[in-house]
Structure formats: structure tokens, C-alpha cells
Amino acid sequence: MAIKRFPDEQPREGDIILHCAHPYGRGPFRWYWVQEPDGGPTEVEAPTGVRLQVHWIALCSDCEVESMRTGRDVEAFVRGHRVWSGDALVIQKDIVS
Ligand SMILES: [Zn+2]
Known about the structure:
Layout: E1 2-5, E2 16-19, E3 30-35, E4 42-45, E5 51-54, E6 56-59, H1 61-70, E7 80-83
Parallel strand pairs: 2-6
Antiparallel strand pairs: 1-3, 2-7, 3-6, 4-5
The structure holds zinc ion.
Residues 20, 22, 26, 59-60, 62-63 line the site of zinc ion (ZN).
């Protein structure tokens, strides 16, 4: 699986995203695009046991900072998933220092 930070694309209506389950109050989300070597989505198992095909991971800024500080993979911070609704611009490209 390959991960790209701040992809040019963003989730579209109906896309499944994985997230860290922290509220927006913890800062803007950072987006990651994930794909298999053939370009297809990565399959993950939700806590409910449902298999999901996903391209998107969203972490709050606290989790992203912790990921960078510790070197833990961004997938380690995933706590849930949801279906994205709307096509509003949400990508935050500011860099955490
Ligand atoms: Zn978080």
C-alpha cells in the first residue's frame, strides 16, 4: 500500500473515508490517499466486520503530529469510517511543524 499526503484530489460524495474519530475542534484534518500497487483501493475491515474498499484517510492535526513524531503509520490512528457527503473543499495544506 502506498500513501500520499495532501493529494490533489479530495473525497467525493459517497466515498468511504477512514478517520481518527477526533472532532473538528482538534484542528483541520489532513488527508492521505492510499492505493495498492495496481492503483486500486485498499481493503480494510471495519470494527463491525464489514470489508471496505478505501482510498482516503483523514487525521486530525494532533494525530498527524503524533504520527510524524513517533514514526507510526497513519493507519495506526484510524478509529472509524464514514461515507463522505458533499464535494466541499476541505483539504488543508498548511504544514504542521
Ligand atoms: Zn485525531
